[in-house]
């Protein structure tokens, strides 16, 4: 069945912060995402990425257009049930904490959804372990480092066990090593449980692991394709490391292939 | 700002720390009520001894408790003076018009002083030995019967929790903005009153803006994570009432009995 | 005029706010020469921010002293010395846009100069001079700082520090929270200041890529002490040591190690940037 395949459908989504002005923060954005897909949304600050995230979970109301999650249209009435399937991790971890300790904070969403005490305990433990923060269960989240805060914020959403998770630059403060770790965990959840991931990011290494890339520019969806295609066709877009190296080598007159390469492919080529 | 004792928590493992926040709150309220029941020096002596024992058991230096009294000392002395000057009765030591210093006045003044200091001591014991989150939990549980009167108990305790969370953040932020403006050449505590007021603008404005932003962000987070005040919620924190808590309450009841008996036996003044 | 910064057996601690573990500097000896560009790295709570604050006299040493050019900050410096220090040392805090307060951008940038006794007329001229440095134009001057985008707010805040033409510039994660372009522009701006005016720059960052690309020297801090102070290339050579400090390796260096391991060919130098790496790969005939 066609409808079952796409878990998220966005049609002609348009939004303005100021109705008196003509410039739209988002104009006629349409795309759809399949269950278990990892989609990265890239674009400069001000291109409308964060606005899009807010529209998807119903924090903002669109001027026109629609959002459908698992076939259900997002409205004032359905937004609470939709939020049980779709979690959003915000960019700024400073202001995300409600609980006084890490475990309290992770549990907040579960309390709201009336999850029983036993199950809550278990889910909180699991989620905290997924982000490697089990040593900090009793800590005050506002005293953690930026990266640790972001991991706790992610755990708060993972404990929810959503079908779709939206990361709004939610991993920027992580050091490269823990970022790779968290991404591996997310990939695992994607493979094993069919978690759908939408990651809004500036980090092209993070974007490169996605199955598909959406490029936003001035409120419009400029391109929707695989990372390889996008980085090949947009030489001005900041690229993942391997692609940057490939471009540099080409500029210096090396005879390297003229197609996009992942890091592993690059290593293989260099070691030939 | 670091001198402020009220509302701070001192981590520790004493018996007082381990008591259930509900037991601590109930006992403290009971104790404060007793201060108003007590009318003779025997009762006050007993209550002072009890308070000192509890303070000792908390494992926190008596110095810290005295620090808690210090910011209020002028208010206390003012009230005590009024009591001394305007209570008449017993031997009169000094008499000028409406102002008299009498025996009863002096005794009353001493009692009032003890009352104030003990109220501060006992409430400080509670706040110093209980995590803010446990305190709000305790309050939530104690207020929960009011739910039947349609009092939004959960909302109140969530508000308390968030307010408590905001305080350290706000202090951090204040320090940061002050540092930033000092680095830009402003100096605090100098110049006329008007000048000093003016210097507050570069601090208060940014704090205002950031608090608004923070509140907005937090509201978004709460909404996305499914918080609706109309919906029933479960609670992740469970308070466990232990034997020691029952013992504490029993001691409190016995103390109440003694104070009441003392009130019956002893007259108003010694 | 450029300035050196010299720490002599500096110890300092904090007493800010309740329930705060003290952030401490312990016996810090550090010489940052005039016109140097130094990156300070280390984990949260290692004392990086405290180090920065002492240079500006915002945190005073309990023991030892800090020399900033001719000025000396010790336990109880005079008000004149502190004012002089704050005038010569520009300090950009993390998320500096949090310090914006005035009605217009112009007033906000003028705040520093006016505090340091510059006349209103002169201050306005200084503001006009500083704008191009941070890539802003004069039409922004009458706007409210709160109506600007995040990136512009950051620039205005940095302009508010640069406007005093400091000889030493101290920055705490100036690129945090910006998109890659915005971050790149800020760091390039610092580099230009450093190259053109010889401003001594001390930059706290956790991004090793930035350290590799912009800094000349690296200071590693841990537990309130200086763990090491090295030229950047030497610093990134010893990867084992970096791992021991659990510090990251810049991408280019990481890739270099991977290639060296898989091909058994040593590249001729320690690669800090992609440019380095590409040249090295071509030189040894791998690419």
Structure report:
The complex is a heterotrimer of chains A (272), B (270) and C (287). Chain A has 272 residues and is α/β, with parallel strands linked by helices. Chain A folds into 3 domains: 1-85 and 162-235, P-loop containing nucleotide triphosphate hydrolases (Rossmann fold); 97-160, no CATH class; 240-272, no CATH class. Helices cover 38% and strands 21% of the residues of chain A. Chain A has a 6-stranded mixed sheet, sandwiched between helices. Chain A has a 4-stranded antiparallel sheet with strand order 2-1-4-5. In chain A, β9 (212-217) and β10 (220-225) form a beta hairpin. In chain A, 49% of the residues are buried. The model of chain A has no long low-confidence stretch (mean pLDDT 90). By secondary structure, chain B is mostly helical. Chain B is built from 10 helices and 2 strands; from the N terminus they run αααααββααααα. In chain B, α4 packs across α6, α5 runs antiparallel to α6 and α8 (153-183) crosses α9. Residues 16-21 of chain C have low confidence and may be disordered. Chain C contains 11 helices and 10 strands. The longest helix of chain C is centred in the middle third of the chain and has 18 residues, at 180-197. Chain C has one domain (5-249): Rossmann fold (3-Layer(aba) Sandwich), CATH 3.40.50. Chain C is 39% helix and 20% strand. In chain C, the strands form 2 sheets. A 6-stranded mixed sheet of chain C has the order 6-7-8-3-9-10, sandwiched between helices. The interface between A and B is medium-sized, with 38 and 30 residues. Chain B: Transmembrane (T) component of an energy-coupling factor (ECF) ABC-transporter complex. Unlike classic ABC transporters this ECF transporter provides the energy necessary to transport a number of different substrates.
